[in-house]
Design goal:
Rossmann fold; 3 domains; four-stranded parallel sheet; binds 1,3-dihydroxyacetonephosphate; binds iron/sulfur cluster
């Protein structure tokens, strides 16, 4: 089984089609004292069976405080890595180890180390969407929930490198007025929205509010009525009296929006081509079946070398301390 697992990145075990997989997952979680943490971009069935659904910050905070023996992370690799770094003594499982992130991939450690060396007097603030190696090269981690406050908390004279997302970086520069050096990375999902189609959709739905994740490009963000992390977008749709929302982020979040406000209408912002490319192909590698076998056999497990855990933990702890200070 391990050889196949190593090759494929997930356990290729057939599940009995007559199995009530939701009940089996619930049973296994209880038996094994396992907690299932899921990101909003996971498929609906995984969200429905999760113990906690959240954005990157919420998921890291949950991982840091759980009493479970096993964390099953339904999300992408860098998120599960963050959980392992925060809980090195727990078993952290990821249903499919291939669930990567184009943004994290856009920042290879050797190139980033050279970039950092070119700016020796800069503080390195890094978006959590990066590998453990990049975290180990950073001073403070942030997420889209706390990035503006974290940058604002740094004294005005301090020069800053922001990596890896240039779109989020540019948005923070606009919000804080800080002149940061940006790494040239981006997310494949948030860069595909069509401005023309969004403008057309807005004219067809004049009372709809247009909301966007800060990983979107500037011309999209400039049109947005509200910009925020996935949790902030969800809360915005709950708290506003408007009944229609055009949503520029990965489509998985629409499930929680619709559940929280069944009387409202949520329209995914359209991509440039007629593809489903506002679905994150990495997030969607996890399936309910892979999740079930992963929990049953406790594989694949995320392993990170101890020295890397120690280094990468420092900037993550700084983020969690600052977030607690900001009341996030
Ligand atoms: P959030 O932190 O808003 O959940 O964003 C995660 C992510 O991967 C966005 O693409
Ligand atoms: Fe990475 Fe983008 Fe997918 Fe988020 S949506 S996990 S940033 S590729």
């Amino acid at each position: 089984m391990d050889t196949v697992l190593l090759k494929k990145g997930f356990l290729d075990v057939e599940t009995d089609p007559s199995l009530n997989i939701f009940e089996e997952i619930k049973k296994l979680k209880k038996e094994k004292n396992a907690v299932l943490l899921a990101h909003y971009y996971q498929e609906n069935d995984i969200q429905d069976v999760a113990d906690y659904i959240g954005d990157s910050l919420g998921l890291a905070q949950q991982a840091a405080r759980t009493n479970a023996d096993i964390i099953v992370f339904a999300g992408v690799h860098f998120m599960a890595e963050t959980a392992k770094i925060l809980c090195p003594d727990k078993k952290v499982l990821l249903p499919d180890l291939n669930a990567g992130c184009s943004l994290a991939d856009s920042c290879p450690p050797e190139k980033f180390a050279a970039f950092k060396a070119e700016h020796p007097d800069h503080l390195v603030i890094t978006y959590v969407n990066c590998s453990a190696d990049i975290k180990a090269l950073s001073d403070i981690i942030c997420t889209s929930s706390n990035a503006v406050q974290i940058v604002n908390s740094i004294h005005a004279g301090q020069k800053i490198i922001f990596a890896p997302d240039k779109n989020l970086g540019r948005y923070i520069v606009e919000k804080t007025g800080r002149d940061m050096v940006l790494w040239n990375g981006s997310c494949m999902v948030h860069e595909i929205f069509s401005l023309q189609k969004i403008v057309r959709l807005k004219s067809q739905h004049p009372s709809a509010l247009f909301i966007a994740h800060p990983e979107c490009e500037k011309q999209i963000l400039d049109k947005a009525d509200f910009i925020g992390s996935t949790t902030a977008l969800l809360n915005f749709t709950i708290n506003r009296k408007e009944k229609e929302f055009i949503v520029a982020t990965e489509t998985g979040i629409l499930h929680q929006m619709q559940k929280a406000s069944p009387e409202k209408t949520f329209i995914p912002a359209p991509p440039d081509s007629n593809c489903a490319c506002n679905d994150c192909p990495h997030m969607k590698l996890n399936t309910l079946e892979k999740l079930y076998v992963c929990l049953k056999y406790e594989k694949p497990e995320l392993i990170i070398p101890e020295h890397l855990i120690q280094k990468a933990r420092i900037p993550i702890d700084r983020m969690l301390e600052l977030s607690a200070k900001f009341g996030l």
